[in-house]
Structure formats: structure tokens, C-alpha cells
Amino acid sequence: MFRNFFKKSAFLMSAAVIVLMMVGCSATTRDISPDEAIHYDEGYDFSDKKAIVSDLVESLLNKPPLVSRLDDRPVLIIYGVANRTSEHIETDGITDDIRQEILQSGRARFVNKVQRDNIAKESAYQYGGNVSAETRLARARQVGAEYMVTGTLRSIKKKQPKQIRLKKKTLQYYSLTLELTDLQTGLIEWTDSAEIVREASKPFIGW
């Protein structure tokens, strides 16, 4: 009798464990706001990109030379952000957001560097004999950039020394520096940095 009881109890416990594992392993999804700061670890993520871009664009728009030229819209060109971290970070997303926020402010215009080859191809096509002279674009009318935007993304990662403890901590540092260079004089007219420092604490044993 007791043997059967223990067998049934063991079977029920095993079944309960299996059910809990199945429930815990089920996939779920949910929609979140792009403005919500979510970090799964100490690494760089989309929340960091939004924060540092917002800080630097605000600085750029409120400092000379842009703040002193409210009566016109200077022409800028972005030559990219150099990734000096040890991670594979797509910095085009940073420059795209910078350009978008500045354009939406109405304070500056941008030369479309990415589409220069396509613009040249379209110009060559229009002058290839298939487009009427009345409707084809006029040559030598493109606007030259006055200022160049460049930047550098850097990171430093530190780990706690090996000791007897239940958790290990990691300190992650990111820095994005932007520069605005006057193409006529070669002088840096503005520069600023945005920093992110994040500490992560993880158990030595876990999933």
C-alpha cells in the first residue's frame, strides 16, 4: 500500500515538474515603446543610441555655429562615426538618427552623401539623349557642404577580480564624441561627448 502511494506521489511530482518546465519554456512576445529604456545586459543597445544621440544633437543645436545662424540653414555632411569598440556596432544607425533629428529641427540641411553615386547616374541618364532639354536637371547646381560631422564611439569593459562571491560584477563604459568641422577653414567649430556607464551583476550559477 505504501509502495503504491510513494509511486503515485513520485509520478505526480514528476508530472508537475514537466508541466512547470513546459510553461517556463513557452515563448511569449509583447510590444514595448521605443522610448522605454530596457537593458538585458551591460552592453550597448537601442536605448543607449537614443539617449546619446538626443544629448549630442541638443548640444549641437544650442551652440555656435548653428545657434548663431538662426536666419539661415547651414549645409552639413556626415562622414560617419568610427567604431573603436571591441563590439560589432552598426554606427550608421547613429548617424541616421543624428541627421533625422537635426533635419526635423529645421536648423540645418544635409548633403546626401550616401546617394551621390545614384545622383550622378541619374544626371548621366538625363543627358544621355532620352530626356528632353526642357525637363532635364541643370548641371553644376548642387550645393556644397559648409560643415562636416564626424564622430568616434569608444568603450571600456572592466570585470571584478576573481574572488569567492555569489555574484560577479561587470562595469561597461561607452563614449560617443562628435565633431563639427568647418570645411572652408578646417577648424573644429564644435565638439561634445555623451557617456554611458552601466554596472551588471550576474550570479555565477543560473540559466
Task: Explain what you see.
The structure is a single chain. The chain is of the alpha/beta class. It has a single domain, classed as 3-Layer(aba) Sandwich (Rossmann fold), CATH 3.40.50.10610. It contains four helices and five strands. Strands 2-1-3-4-5 form a five-stranded mixed sheet, covered by helices on one side. Strand 4 and strand 5 form a beta hairpin. Helix 2 packs across helix 3. The longest helix has 23 residues.
Uncertain runs are: none
Number of helices: 4
**Measured distance between first and last alpha carbons:** 40 Å
| Number of separate domains | 1
Q: Examine the coordinates and then state which fold CATH places here, giving the name of the CATH topology.
A: Rossmann fold
Quaternary state of the chains: single chain
The portion of residues forming beta strands comes to: 25-35%
Keywords:
alpha/beta, 27% strand, single chain, Rossmann fold, 207 residues
Short overview:
This protein is an alpha/beta fold. The chain contains four helices and five strands. The model has no long low-confidence stretch (mean pLDDT 83).
Topology summary:
Blueprint (H helix, E strand, L loop, with lengths): L1 H23 L21 H16 L13 E9 L8 H14 L3 E2 L5 H15 L16 E13 L7 E16 L5 E16 L4
Parallel strand pairs: 1-2, 1-3
Antiparallel strand pairs: 3-4, 4-5
